[in-house]
Design brief:
Layout: H1 2-26, E1 32-33, E2 48-49, E3 59-61, E4 73-75, H2 76-91, E5 98-100, H3 105-119, H4 121-124, E6 141-144, H5 155-163, E7 169-173, H6 178-181, E8 186-192, H7 195-203, H8 208-215
Length: 224
């Protein structure tokens, strides 16, 4: 029996550094609970996790005119802003639609596990969030049109980069910011933060992580 426990502890101590290194590299270390009191400015990433089963109370369907996805719910404020953005874009001959919006942590777990099965943990963590760490669960995020990096070269993506902040949306995972956001470039992934914050982020070329570091959470919204 003593020999068994000795072998167990030897295995634990020799294997755990690799696991710790992996978690540090992938960002899933020193985690804190996401601060829901920030409202539409909530920060959810590899360091900030939503409580299990979290679901916004004010989810509504995306306007049918701008939806082609099964996951079609957004928080009411974000849904209204999204419809306004799509309508304005249409006047510029730019057609935008929802590909994927709110996801529960159950759905996100399935997506993440599928990604791990296909590509392994290290690769999956570069483009797929673990359950509780996905911005989609906030109900403030929408994937637009196409979830392929080639979307970044389209007129639609160019229009979004120039105009999305006017409606309160930011490009959440911009190119060359992977070390800050923790995820690879996703030109289709837009996050609603409100016009004031989005304009500040756009003008100063920030990520949401950098905004939270520089704004010192001066603009707070009540929990919704």
């Amino acid at each position: 029996m003593k020999l068994f426990f000795l072998c167990f502890f030897i295995q634990f101590f020799f294997s755990s550094p690799g696991s710790i290194t992996q978690n540090l590299r992938d960002g899933y270390a020193e985690m804190a609970e996401a601060d829901t009191s920030l409202g539409i400015l909530i920060l959810v990433n590899k360091h900030h996790k939503l409580a299990e089963g979290y679901r916004p109370h004010d989810l509504v369907p995306v306007d049918d005119r701008y939806n082609r996805g099964i996951m079609n719910l957004l928080r009411s404020e974000a849904a209204a802003a999204f419809a306004q953005m799509c309508s304005t874009a249409e006047k510029d001959s730019i057609i935008l639609w929802n590909h994927s919006a709110y996801r529960s942590d159950t759905v996100q777990r399935q997506l993440y596990e599928n990604a791990v099965e296909r590509r392994g943990v290290q690769r999956a963590d570069r483009f797929s969030a673990r359950p509780g760490h996905s911005e989609h669960q906030t109900g403030l995020t929408v994937d637009l049109n196409s979830t392929h990096t080639s979307f970044g070269k389209t007129p639609e993506a160019a229009w979004l980069r120039q105009h999305a902040h006017l409606f309160g949306f930011i490009e959440r995972y911009p190119r060359h910011q992977e070390d800050i956001t923790g995820y690879e470039y996703e030109p289709w992934h837009y996050r609603y933060v409100g016009i004031e914050a989005a304009t500040y982020i756009y003008n100063n070329k920030l990520t949401l992580e950098e905004y939270h570091g520089t704004s010192q959470k001066q603009t707070r919204h009540p929990a919704r």
